Protein 1
Amino acid sequence: MNFDSNLPIYIQIMDLIKRQVITGDLKEGDKLPSVREIATQLKVNPNTIQRSYQELERENLVYTQRGMGTFVTEDKQLVKELKVNIAKNIINNFLDDMKAIGYSPHEILDLISNRVREGK
């Protein structure tokens, strides 16, 4: 994984896990890799992974069972809400960027409509 130097690594790891959950790569109830395993895989300090897991647990996206590991929530509604919130953030960032380069709301809608019609 290539990390962005403008954003803390633990947040980028959280975002990676969140995307895996909403895309179904990680399903409700799935066990996450161990802290050491993912730290080795991503070549980061295990404390960074631990912090990501703790923050995800604070958001109720994962839960830890002592001696068993960390698991994805089984709350389907929470996962749906996460997906909607991520989509809203993507849209907001896109709209802000488009407005910053001079596009009007109407022009943005036209561009999106054309792209959707093209099916790409």
Protein 2
Amino acid sequence: MEQVDERFDIGARLHAMRMAAGLSQRQLAEKAGVPHAQISNVETNKISPSVSTLRRILNGLGVGMGDFFEPERSPSKGPFFSADELLDLTSRISGQLPGGANGTLVLRQVGDARSHNLQILHEVYEPSADTGETFLQHTSSEGGYVVEGELEITIGNDVRILKAGEAYLFDSRLPHRFRNISGERAIVISACSPPYL
């Protein structure tokens, strides 16, 4: 796995992208469907956004997580990919939770998802990792297979804890959330079409 640049400033990067798009904080908040204060708090690093919140904000800018975190990096063309060629989408999002718990969530993408209209992810959920209280919801279909550990998945009103060897497949227009409520790491291989993150 790649070394993470601990100096990556999410707030400064969001501010620069918003300014380049010619949007005020209020305009971006309206486009993203988030409270105005949330844009300000992320830009000033008062809060570290969850995956779901950051994705909503970036959707307002019309960019993906890969473009946000690794704008200079072009996905490898493949057809084969070494571990260091996977595109890091999330590890720079702080995983620190109240009480000092580490809730790091690392999503790494295989190749150029947009050109193949398919996003394949290697997902690592440390204990307490969570995609966020704001549920994800997008026009796609997605599925995955739990390789290690266990993961709580909420899809609409259905909640289930999947263990290694179990899988899921659903319409992503249904509100959904992924959480590791166990004390052990969970690893998932997933796919989404069309790509979302």
Protein 3
Amino acid sequence: MSDPAGTDAGDGADVNGTDDAAHVVTAFLRHRGAMLLLRRSDAVGTYRGQWGGVSGFAEGDPDEQVRFEIREETGLGPDAVSIVRSGRPVEFEDSDLGRTWVVHPYLFDSERREIELSEEHDAYEWVSPTAMVDPDADQETVPKLWTAYERVAPTVRSIAADDEHGAAFLSIRALEVLRDRAGLLVGERSEFGADPEGEWAELAELARRLLEARPSMAVLRNRVNRAMAEAGDDAESAGAPAVLDATLAGIDRALAADDDAAATAADRIEGSVATLSRSGTVLDALRNGAPSRVFVAESRPAGEGVDVAEALADDCPVTLHTDAAVAHVIDREEPDRVVVGADTILPDGSVVNKTGTRTLAIAADRAGIPVSVVAATDKVSTREEVNLESGDRQAVYDGPAAIDVLNPTFDVTPADCVTEFVTERGILDPGEIGTIAEELRELETWQSDGEATDANPSTR
């Protein structure tokens, strides 16, 4: 049963057998920063013509039901979507219907935008989530849709705690946090009036918290700084609309830069390749290149390399190996090129990336194998110093012995072990990185003190 507002369950239906509320699931599907909204057709019982997410009655386990609804209402199977998170249920009463709803929200990432509509919807659009609260938008939404979205939307806390995704991915999430808040402030103007100065102060504070969230990720800082800088000198008079426009443009620009860097790298990939960790940009480059074989280090303790190996298995021959075997693989298998991503590129051309990158690059340099670092230029840091994050000690050892544990998440690869940087601007050598760092420093001047912060990750 998919129609969460239809008549087939009856008013006050006890769908879970525990109360008189109707429990439903709502899935928000995200693709490259945009959200899927679907317009309810005349085939449903209520909220006809209004826009919502993928939804349906929670018959049994909501975690299972939501996947069924996605497949039924969009045609997207389990290989096309991946869950990001679920959120606390939203309970509200619709007095017109005389019904209490309990909405279980979910956020999924979708691999593609093409979907197959069921009869319950007659149109769909991929839009910024802020369209839900835009008083000028054409999409009238079902009740409490924005409230449900906020339960699963990215936050400063979720960005600080995310140890599964790379820097480029998290930089987009940071821009989404700013975008969503700016969009909400714009939407609230119709009720509370405009307060440009107050809006700017609130968004500037949020931006500073985002800058602090992941201190090792220069790309996050640069992209947040660019959005705030491009809000313009008149941002204090324009307020939230200026930041909303800048973040929407920033997301598009960031996605294009990552795509272009991957496309440039793909043109250079042929023969056998060695890599490690999980970089979305590198993965796209390998998928679109022509490698004869890819050697992938497992990238313990999180095992990101295993995910990369599985993702590439249908495209080309893949060999997965232990991290300790990196030098052995370089010596015995003699790959034609090492291709890695970067969390941060320091002004001198050295590279901060997943632990093990340094070992791989030094071994390749010694063997005369070129090392290509694939990254958008937004990953160049404006600072000489580096803040290296550490992972959970229990991921390495959780036994009873009194053992000190080191679990560094990142290491630093010397610039002289890097052959080239493959970027959206083309191929750069390490000596050109300093000039880019100077450009990016100009973006930091939006802050009142003219200097970006670098504190511990915020947990708010």
